[in-house]
Amino acid sequence: MQRQAKATQMSGISDPSQPLATPSQRGGERAFAAPRTNGSDAQKAIITEFLGQARLSLTSKLDRFIQLRINSRRDKFMSGRKNERDILKRKLKAGQNIHMPAPRRIGKTWTINRLAEDMRREGWLIVELDVQGMSAPDKFARRLCQKIQNQLPTPSGLHAAFKNRLHALIGGNWGTDPINVIGQVDPVSFLDALLEALAKEDKQSAIFVDEIAYFVLRFAERNEGDAKDFFYELRNLQAEYSNIRWLFTGSIGLNFVAERFGLGGAFVDLTTFILEPFDEAEARSFLRDPATQMGFNHQFHASDEDLKVLFEELGWLAPYYLKLVGNEVRPSGPEQDGRLTAKQEDLQDAMEKLLEPTRKSEFAVWREHIDKNLPQTDRDLARGVLGPLSAAADGETLDTLQAAMVPATPKAVRDILDILQSDGLIDLTKGTKGRYRFRSGLIRRYWQQYEAD
Ligand SMILES: Nc1ncnc2c1ncn2[C@@H]1O[C@H](COP(=O)(O)OP(=O)(O)OP(=O)(O)O)[C@@H](O)[C@H]1O
Ligand SMILES: [Mg+2]
């Protein structure tokens, strides 16, 4: 009996104060109900219970481990733009040249960098070129040439073919580096020679040009006629060397810029693929991805429900803003696996922190966007409509904005709203009485606090 009492105590069967005292937690109703008639029954009950618990604990650990692995694989998959990369790759392989517009900070550069890696692994020669700060075609030609050279072993076929072509163009007075020729021949002839040589390479090649619309805008502002000639020539070269694929990205509406300077026709051959912000599932997996969490000041857990509220407030799930907020989270909820849980207030506080004056620079791209990328009249009008739009999360109707902006014509107001919508700063709600509003609650509050008159 003594043995039985001790054993019973150890197993916690008869002690109602034991924390593990519910049948389901202990993993065996049979063990719970085991009659305490004699020692061997009790021993059996103990062993059964022990085995049940051990099995459960092992199974749940295994389950947890498997779940973590699945989550982390799914997380990587979901926020890694895998879908988009696959679509872009398929389109390029199918012979399309692409324009991929997306608002500032949405992940254009990140996505095309990863796409370049994907395609290089499949044997493509991918040249990546950022043209954001450019305003002249010789710089474009020089950078493209350097980037292509970087991708190739020096004694490559391209090198020799390109040199021969340049010799034929201007003779041999330029040393050994083709870059020296820039300035002596016009950029289009130089590009023609370069692309001809690239097209003859064994590898299938593609050129990814990041931020084309800025280049078009800056160039056309300096010299509209030359810009028109150059971009139409570039289109001809694309058609001529049609086995070289092109992918252009842009944060400002290429169509608006091209139309304004009468060179809309230079970009008509491109297939448009819009890079959207994350959806909620992608945003959740992005925030929970161990790689993202590693970069935060404090790593944290957050429930789907709490994240949902945050996402509604953010409105616009771009990785950049998710990262900004995530970095500010100071979790104060219960600990789980060595990490604290962020409560609703913690997420809210993180948003508020970003709106402090010291953090203004993090939103500077949007002020720049209005002040540098629009002509003066459009700029004044843009600021004119963004002020009232920033006053409320649900924005304003077109009629109200047009009335508020008199003497600007109703058409001018609608045009500027189209531009702001295409640049991703605002959107238009569906329905007959659609309302223009800021896409991001965070940027709206920044604008209201620091930019609106
Ligand atoms: N899918 C992603 N996973 C992880 N980080 C990402 C992802 N997409 C973007 N980022 C991060 O978000 C930030 C903005 O991304 P990126 O620079 O690619 O945006 P962008 O659209 O090119 O912006 P900009 O218009 O200012 O050039 C970067 O810090 C980048 O590392
Ligand atoms: Mg970029």
Give a quick summary of the entry.
With 453 residues, the protein is an alpha/beta fold.
Task: Walk me through the structure.
The protein has 453 residues and is α/β, with parallel strands linked by helices. The protein has four domains: 2-64; 82-272, P-loop containing nucleotide triphosphate hydrolases (Rossmann fold); 280-354, Helicase, Ruva Protein, domain 3 (Orthogonal Bundle), CATH 1.10.8; 361-451, Arc Repressor Mutant, subunit A, CATH 1.10.10. The protein is 58% helix and 9% strand. It has 22 helices and eleven strands. It has helices at 2-11, 23-26, 29-33, 39-79, 82-93, 108-121, 137-151, 157-170, 187-199, 212-222, 224-240, 254-260, 280-288, 290-294, 304-314, 319-328, 344-354, 364-373, 376-390, 398-404, 410-422, 441-451, and strands at 98-101, 125-130, 205-210, 244-250, 271-272, 300-301, 335-336, 339-341, 396-397, 426-428, 435-438. Strand 7 (335-336) and strand 8 (339-341) form a beta hairpin. Helix 10 (212-222) packs across helix 11 (224-240), helix 19 packs across helix 21 and helix 19 packs across helix 22. The termini are far apart. Adenosine-5'-triphosphate (ATP) is lined by residues 79-81, 102, 104-110, 251, 319-320, 365.
